[in-house]
Structure formats: C-alpha cells, structure tokens
Amino acid sequence: MKKLFCISIIAFVMVNCKNKGTTYSDPVPIYESLTITSNLLNEDRIINIWTPPNYNQSTDSLTVVYMPDGGIKEDFPHIANTIAELVENGKIPPVILVGIENTERKRDLTGPTENEE
C-alpha cells in the first residue's frame, strides 16, 4: 500500500508539472542538507531534505519520497513547494522529500550505452 501511495504522489506531482523543460524560479523552501561520501563513485553527494510543517513536533511516521535531480539548482525547490502546497490544502498527507543532487547528470540518470549519440 505504501508503494502505491508513493507512486501516486510522484505521478500526481509529475502530472501537475505541465511546463516540461521550463526552468522554475520557485523560492527555495526551508530544508536541511547533508553530504554523503560515496566510496563506490569516489565522490561526495549532497542530499537535500524537506520536511512538512510541524514535523519536529510530531512522532508520526511519514512516507519518504526520494527524487533524483534533487539539487537546489535542479528540481528540488519546485517539487518541495508543490508538495508543501498539496499538504497544506489537504490533497495529500504529509511526506518527507529527499533530493539527491546530481554530479554527472548523464551518468546518474541514464544507463550505459555503446551508442555515442
């Protein structure tokens, strides 16, 4: 059931992002950031975390939505603001958003290929 809920949230957010290819100028929401060192990739990864209002005053367990392209200069602000609005309006229950910032977008988001194009 949780998997279906997460897929539904992601689909809802994607459907409501109608201006594909557009650079969003959303304000950067309040978030936390941490750096994780990847020994496998031999690089650091920045992880951005948005939590809903009153998260620190609650003991509720929340669903976590993980997003690639989750950098502050990528899609993280837009998606975090969209989720915040949906939560505020009671359209979805509170969730935690974890954005994983890219370092090499082509490598990170596409599989290996032998086709140079």
Estimate the helix proportion, in percent. 25-40%
Broad shape? globular
Distance between the termini: 40 Å
Largest sheet, order of strands side by side?
1-2-4-3
Cα gyration radius (Å): 15 Å
Total E-strand runs: 4
Can you put this structure into words, describing what you see?
This protein has three helices and four strands; from the N terminus they run H-E-E-E-H-E-H. The longest helix is centred in the first third of the chain and has 15 residues, at 2-16. It is globular. It has a four-stranded mixed beta sheet with strand order 1-2-4-3. With 117 residues, the protein is of the alpha+beta class. The model has no long low-confidence stretch (mean pLDDT 84). Strand 1 (32-38) and strand 2 form a beta hairpin. The protein has helices at 2-16, 76-88, 105-109; strands spanning 32-38, 43-50, 63-68, 95-100.
Walk me through the topology.
Layout (H helix, E strand, L loop, with lengths): L1 H15 L15 E7 L4 E8 L12 E6 L7 H13 L6 E6 L4 H5 L8
Parallel strand pairs: 3-4
Antiparallel strand pairs: 1-2, 2-4
Brief overview:
The protein is of the alpha+beta class and 117 residues long. The chain has three helices and four strands, in the order H-E-E-E-H-E-H. Helix 2 links the parallel strand 3 and strand 4.
Main attributes?
single chain, 117 residues, alpha+beta, four-stranded mixed sheet
